[in-house]
Request: fold
Amino acid sequence: MLSVSHPTVNQYVRALIDALDHLLRKPVARGDFADHAHDLGAIEGAERDDAVVRAQAPWRAEFGPRGREDEQRRLRAALGEIRAALGPAAVLVNNAANDQRYEFDQITPEQFDRTIAVNFRHVFFAAQAIVPQMRELGYGSIVNMSSVSWMRGIPLLEAYASAKAAIVGFTNTLARALGPHRIRVNAIAPGTVLTERQRQLWFQTEAQVEAARAAQCLPDLIAPEDIANLALFLASDDSRLITKQTISVNAGVL
Reply:
């Protein structure tokens, strides 16, 4: 008989992390989350446009952003292999993303479609593929990564922000649909997290970093661990009655 209570993070042995290396990187994918979710099946997505999701060893599969016809079949096959090895998944963290900037009057339909695919398409279909496993368990937690970009209105991120706003709509609607199955669906909207990629592309000078800091109420820069801690909380029993929420870690920038 399935218990109606949800496991704590320390009890999770089946957690799927979708592209957690992009934003959260080592503190979660190979550190904090792995410490709490041993025997982890990691679905990690690259920051490259030519690979949205790849199943890490020993499960390997790649999915292009242009939506090939076999995308869902291959995704389901990869998740099926993980399920066969570890059992049904209790947690899914959707985090593959690429915040490439485009001039609004110059972005092409192909670039727009790629942006939506990298930032939203996988969220929808990874959840679709994993929900049957959570129904089987009788509980689950889906954590989708949104962004403050659509709330702030940041220039050059019109397509990216649209995808991140869509994630919130999807989160709210899916939470309502899955609530009777004790499957919780929440979103995290990070502020400016200065990962290595962000520093290389958009915050190359100390002046740019200080400008980001000045926009916040709090003087401390947001670290990947700050987002990881919230993801852990939303995955755990401590948040068992929290669903249909978008929680922003932004140091007061909004």
Notes: The chain has one domain: 9-249. Residues 1-15, 18-67 have pLDDT under 50 and may be disordered.
